[in-house]
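ARCHIVE CARD
SHELF: 3
SLOT: left
DATA:
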Amino acid sequence: MHQFTEQRTAETGNEIWLVEHERVFTQGQAGKAEHVLAPGDIPVIQSDRGGQVTYHGPGQQVMYVLIDLKRDKIGVRELVSALENSVVETLKQWNIEAYPRPDAPGVYVAGNKICSLGLRIRNGRSFHGLALNINMDLEPFHRINPCGYAGLAMTQMADFVPGITLADVQPVLTAQFCRQLGFQLAAE
């Protein structure tokens, strides 16, 4: 992701990377050590993305958005809104009512966070992206103050749609994100 961003040219196409990480806490640039309460056996990695601490693990869809914002005339706030709205629209496909909050980036369902955002912009190009909880072990979130908020409750799609998988969600999420920005999705 870093190498792609460093080496891309004005002609390089935008990309979306869908990944599923092993168990790891990532501490963003605004992260504070006191928000990592009891990591135990899960490694804590410093990240150059925005935001504070979060957890990544199996059953969570991480979507990295590698977009040339400058070339495509997209503002950072517009990108954040596109990410949030793509998740809201994706969840709507499974009748999950979700919403962004103006005071805390991400997407929420009944006050519980289901999706975290963390971006980095370098030379007008974005990297990092979002982490959508689909069907995962949420216990590690109790070991941190997610996104710097003590007691923030996390949720996942499987709480509303038992048995849902990343493969179920991936095509909907990527299509919704592209729709938000007016992009055409081209399969690799």
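SLOT: right
DATA:
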Amino acid sequence: MFPTLPTVFVSFSVSSPPLSSLLSPLLLSPFPEVSHVFHHVLELLSDGVLLLGDSVCELVWDDRSLVGTELKQKLQACMELLGEILSYHQSVSADIPRSAQVHHRMAYTSISIFTIKLLQTILPPEKAGEHLPESTATAIFHLCLDTSLGSLLPSMHQAAVAYLEQVNSDSHDLYRRVSRAALWMESTCNFMKEAQAEGEKNWVELLELADQAINGLSLHQHLPVIKECVHICSHLWMFEDPSPLLQRESQKLLLKLLSHPSLPVRAETYQCTLRLAKDCLGIQNVARKEVAACGGLNFLIHHRVLYEITAFGLQDSAEKVNVAAKDILLFVLKGRLMMTASTWDRFNEALHPVMPVLQGYAGTEDSLGNCVLLISDMSDGFPSKAKLKAALRLLFTKQPTVRIAAVQQILPHLSSHDDAGAARPELDQSVISSLPNLFCLRQPADVSLDTCKKSVLKVESVEKLFGILSSDTVDLSLKRSAGEQLSVVLQDTTMHPVLKNLGITDKVISFIVGSVNGNKE
């Protein structure tokens, strides 16, 4: 089975202690002067790997014979020695001379490549958890964390990660989290660099970097990222012929920021959006004669964004967030004179799906509530059908003043007509005065279920089910089905006396006792 084992052992210094004691100090040498000797040793060992590939198969790890056990022990000793050598070269002090640092780094890189090549030759990843020495597993973990080596040799790095996953799941999970954090930090730096650079930009790549930077906000808390993201979203929605892909992806970033679990991130996002709204709809744009300045707010005039701000921003427990959300909506609702006609029409269209939620804030005591009331007024630019629906919804509010205002908005719809032939009769004043309380119940109705009525189940059917369950001649599958149906019957309390008289309690107890005693039936 192993025709050339003596040669292989000599090549790996695992069968001859003198040879092992000779090669190990050379691999552990801290002196750059012996680098050429170090490389010759690695060349010798690399040739030995080729011999091992022809001589040892993966079945050796399942071989329980004396020869197989001895071979496994020697191979494990070799892997353990390599792990110790890797740890030595990886953990050198930073105080040593520059030439020595270069030597250790080159030695670490070379032995890492050789170690992974050896493992791929003799040890399948699925068997590494049982047979890989602890020192080697630790060295592989540090190797996986070496990002510079991983970028230089990606295939070797992937192989090391595969072995780490089999050897230590906790270390592999830690590696994944560290790698993810490193990617987020690197993406954040690249994003800030590209976002602030002059000239043409690759928007798709920039949005991908922005997404990674947002994912890392919980780690680095670099809030200037948020300002850049909001301005990019605004810019991408200002194009005359915008890209649907860029609009969709930038909107995802904005929604992720608006709903971020971290309070500082949410607060900064709302503050940046508010500043942008003020800049686009501010009175200063009249003096500048910038008619299209409101185009920078196009990213905000979308039903998904408006719903996020209305449903969650206004309800946020943090005052910084809910106050900013309220101010954003106020600026947009009051910004008709600063918007172009097309922008105002798009805003009305985007507001339709959000109206049922937004009308929950209708009132007469604050500015936002009054603005919401005016949305359903006849003087507004909404379609007649939408305004009528909005006014009817206001009749369900708890505030009497809001309901009275809603009636005043509904009356024109009730009395309007296109021609004299379609004229409606005048409404009686008493009827009008009762309209605000149209949906108010003075005597709340009891909608609880009536459980006193007769059960829909038949006693005969229940008795048949119990007979199947208690029969000794019926097939086991039928008895199980009957038991499942009886469990449903038990949910009807009117059937409890019937089942109790049939003796279901004693029957169930006997089943439990039989199961505990090992009765498979």
